[in-house]
């Protein structure tokens, strides 16, 4: 199969000339998928992460946060074609932005390197995107999702911040601060990311809804980090997330006022494209 094929639902031209690939019995073919993995001292966890990545993905981009362990060597030994990028600044947000720039696939999937994300779920994210979503947003609290990794306090904080985002921006999210998401690369032009830390996922979730993109939640299970300790500090990073939410202007009313032409009416009148 060649890249002359177009994603039927989105109408976007493929941005690369890499080939579409057959996947499984329920997803026949997919555009090239890039997996971005931000990693800072995750050498011990990478074997678990890479083991679950499907072999049909187009590329893996590992963004190294100046690791002092063998993160880069281990990644290269596990996935010889891995594209390693050194991040310029500091923080997970900075790492992801650097990684997105290095991707050549039409679909980009974000996967943490601590062993908490199961690569076998990638097919669900890609299926949603191929079926018409712009942004496939992982959720630990949608039916079928779950978490082994969150304390009660973190769940409460995430719920409170998610409620504020839903009210302010007119979203209907069940989860907010979760790192497992996927999207068509064209989304990046509409969300113009500018942040450095763990607030990156919140900023993405807000900007996609503000841009009127089609967001679909994907139930996802977050496993316990396998080795090492979390880089997240609940209070410090929670406050950063809150600052992002308060700092973003809401265009909720304008989005609600925007009327959409009914494709059913158009087809009856013979005006469908
Ligand atoms: N390159 C890079 N990666 C980072 C940086 N900070 C965190 N990461 C990676 O981002 C991912 C998520 O970080 P974690 O420390 O697991 O934080 P978390 O998943 O939000 O929090 P927990 O639920 O406690 O694990 C991991 O793969 C980290 O290695 C950074 O500054 N640079
Ligand atoms: Mg983690």
UniProtKB/TrEMBL annotation:
Boundaries of every Glycosyltransferase 2-like domain copy: 34-156
Signal peptide residues on this chain, from the entry's feature table: none
Coiled coil regions, renumbered to chain: none
Gene3D superfamilies in the record: Spore Coat Polysaccharide Biosynthesis Protein SpsA, Chain A (3.90.550.10)
Domain of life: Bacteria
UniProt family annotation: Belongs to the glycosyltransferase 2 family.
Protein name: Glycosyltransferase family 2 protein
Highest classification ranks of the organism: Bacteria, Bacillati, Actinomycetota, Actinomycetes, Kitasatosporales
């Amino acid at each position: 199969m060649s890249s002359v094929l177009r994603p039927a639902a989105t109408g976007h031209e493929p941005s690369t000339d890499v080939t579409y690939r057959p996947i499984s019995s329920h997803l026949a073919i997919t555009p090239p998928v890039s997996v971005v993995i931000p990693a800072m001292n995750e050498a011990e966890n990478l074997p678990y992460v890479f083991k679950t990545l499907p072999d049909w993905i187009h590329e893996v981009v590992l963004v190294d946060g100046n690791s002092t362990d063998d993160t880069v060597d281990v990644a290269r030994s596990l996935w010889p074609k891995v594209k390693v990028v050194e991040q310029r600044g500091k923080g997970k947000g900075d790492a992801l932005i650097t990684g997105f720039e290095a991707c050549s696939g039409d679909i980009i999937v974000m996967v943490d390197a601590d062993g908490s994300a199961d690569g076998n779920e990638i097919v669900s994210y890609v299926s949603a995107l191929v079926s018409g979503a712009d942004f496939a947003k992982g959720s630990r609290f949608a039916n079928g999702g779950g978490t082994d990794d969150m304390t009660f306090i973190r769940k409460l904080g995430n719920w409170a911040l998610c409620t504020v985002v839903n009210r302010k921006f007119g979203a209907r999210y069940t989860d907010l601060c979760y790192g497992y998401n996927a999207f068509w690369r064209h989304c990046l032009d509409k969300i113009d990311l500018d942040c450095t830390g763990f607030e990156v996922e919140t900023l993405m979730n807000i900007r996609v809804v503000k841009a009127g993109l089609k967001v679909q939640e994907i139930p996802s299970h977050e496993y316990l980090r396998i080795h090492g300790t979390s880089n997240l500090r609940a209070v410090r990073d929670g406050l950063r997330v809150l600052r992002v939410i308060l700092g973003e202007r809401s265009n909720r009313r304008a989005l609600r006022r925007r009327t959409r032409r009914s494709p059913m009416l158009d087809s009856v009148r013979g005006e469908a494209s």
